[in-house]
Amino acid sequence: MIAPEDQGRAYLYRLLARLLAAAPDAATLGLLRGLGGDGSPVGGDLQGLAGAAATAGPGALEREYHDLFIGVGRGELVPFGSWYLAGFLHEKPLAHLRRDLGTLGLGRTAGTKEPEDHVASLCEAMALLIEGKGDLGAQKAFFERHLEGWAPAFFADLERARAARFYAAVGRLGARLMTLERDGFAFVEGVAA
Questions:
Q1: Which of 29, 31, 147, 164 is the most exposed place for a label (fewest CB within 10 A)?
Q2: Model confidence at 111, in pLDDT bands (50, 70, 90)?
Q3: What CA–CA distance (Å, rounded) separates 17 from 35?
Q4: How many other C-beta atoms are found inside a 10 Å radius of the C-beta of residue 160?
């Protein structure tokens, strides 16, 4: 059985994975509009995401997603770990990620066109690890090796990107989750020492 706080972590990772893999459709927007939050920082970010969804339509979000991540030649942002870590796509960080995914018994989903170091794929992998594919040590190691070194910068860039309206709220939520994960893993390590 997964602890409630871990279920919440996995939910946030899956939510980010969904929103970063493709622009939300009308059904997803409807679900996002119903998000509620408590008085916590994450709750506030979820409410902000609900508010952003309330003023967005699927067509506008398709354009925003295209401008941010695809573009003509290239989008405003490049959502790949290799790009942030090495300055190019398909570099050593991707090879290291593929090795670690294989060790964990995780791999590329059939039909996926993007390399595994796409931020959406990494968020999905973290959700799977939290939900039982990896203990806390495996989660921490994966986060430190494949997200901590670049994803905070990516989410900060997303929050302030020129083309980001709805996706600024996604960037805020992602940045918050990265900080919480970093601090949480550091706390657990400190307690264990």
A1: 31
A2: confident
A3: 17
A4: 10
How much is the average pLDDT of 23-45?
Answer: 95
What DSSP line would sit under 105-153, residue for residue?
T--PPTT--S-TTBHHHHHHHHHHIIIIIS-HHHHHHHHHHHTTTTHHH
- Residue 133 has what pLDDT? 77
What are the helix (H) ranges across 55-110?
Answer: 58-65, 81-86, 92-104
Please tell me the distance from the alpha carbon of residue 154 to that of residue 90, in angstroms, as a whole number.
17
> What Rg, from alpha-carbon coordinates, does the chain have?
16
In this prediction, residue 6 carries a pLDDT of: 94
Map out the domains of the chain with their CATH numbers. 4-192 (1.10.3480.10)
C-alpha torsion angle, residues 103, 109, 114, 119 (rounded to 10): -60
Angle (CA) 154-6-97 rounded to 5° is: 45
Q: Which of 43, 28, 65, 33 is nearest to 161 (CA)?
A: 65
User: What is the rounded CA–CA span in Å between residue 83 and residue 73?
Assistant: 15
- Residue 27 · residue 156 · CB < 8 Å: no
